[in-house]
Write a structure and sequence with these properties.
Layout lengths: L1 E10 L5 E6 L2 E7 L6 E14 L1 E6 L19 H11 L8 H13 L2 E9 L7 H12 L5 E7 L10 H10 L4 E5 L8 H15 L2 E6 L3 H18 L5 E5 L8 H14 L2 E4 L10 H7 L3 E3 L16 H11 L5 H11 L22 E4 L4 H7 L3 E6 L2 E5 L2 E2 L2
Parallel strand pairs: 1-4, 5-6, 6-7, 7-8, 8-9, 9-10, 10-11, 11-12
Antiparallel strand pairs: 1-2, 2-3, 4-13, 13-14, 14-15, 15-16
Amino acid sequence: MIDLVLSDVRPWGADPVDVLVTDGRIEAVVPAGSGAPARERLDGAGLLALPGFVNAHAHVDKSWWGRPWVSYGGEATTQGRIAHERAERDALGIPSVDSTVAVLRELLRHGTTAVRTHVDVDLGVELRGIEVVREAAAALDGAVEVELVAFPQDGVVRRPGVLEFLDRAAADGVASIGGLDPASIDRDPVAQLDGLVDIAVRRGVGLDLHVHDGGELGGFTYDLLLDRVRHAGLQGRVTVSHGFALGELPPARQERLLDELAELDVAWTTVAPVRSAPLPWAGMRSRGVGLGLGTDGIRDLWSPFGDGDLLRVALDFARLHGLRTDGDLTAAVELATSGGARFVHRDVHDLVPGARADVVLLDAENVPDALVRAPRRSLVLAGGRTVVRDGELVL
């Protein structure tokens, strides 16, 4: 027998259907009013249905969520933020299971059911943050599926021993290892990239490289990375995070890079920060370059901002890129939902048979209306289990 029938919902604003769920996955999508027998029935009341949101770039281990307000301090540069975080995190108990659980619950409350999170690995915290995030994810009993990236926030080759910790994390089952500004942080891009690629190849993991460097320095970093992807056979396993320079380079340079990204199946994630250069999104889209949206850090020592609502990030993306038409606004929401499948290693993530039954219901006329208003999540199913009702968690 069917476990659950979610009746009378409008996937992506289409005609009403019933969604049939068995063993946490969508078994079938049938016309509304099918009357299929089931152990449980939920009335969707004609609400708009979207797949669960996929947060493709987060730092859930860094947050002080649930603690008294922490005022912003330190210097507003990448190196300044690193130094400030290292100086203050221990006094705040970061990383903390309780704060990480609190952040994951906020993500879930807003409809995020899968997250790819970078977890700090350095000479101070070593691999403790990875265990913290694993414990926090377990506390939610799979409601949010969490994929880990071991992330060297304090640099790689400039901190002898970090490569060994990344290697241990890869051996211990993280999906990817990360890197950070090989030129401006380590000041030795060849050594950082070669060390990371060696681990990725030997351990069979992905590589997710933060690149904040702008202009031609960022472009030079992309060139070095793509050359190694080609020669190491890492096609389809590499992501660039942030990558601000891509939107800053001259058009002809952008076009050449986009062709190479598509050829090597290198993906991109962005948090659509204000005042950053828009990405050449139309060119990425036409070439099929993977693009995911994320929240970045939420209330941490890098920034006091963030509420965990990925629909608002999609709205920021739409505004940054000047999107106006219904098709483009819908595409922005797709980036935050079905388009995020690759970043959490799902073959499919949508309201279709075979997908995990992650469903978000919203009181909205259509997808563009949902994007511009970001209404509360009326109902959230995670793996076929009701986890949010009327905007509030029920687990």
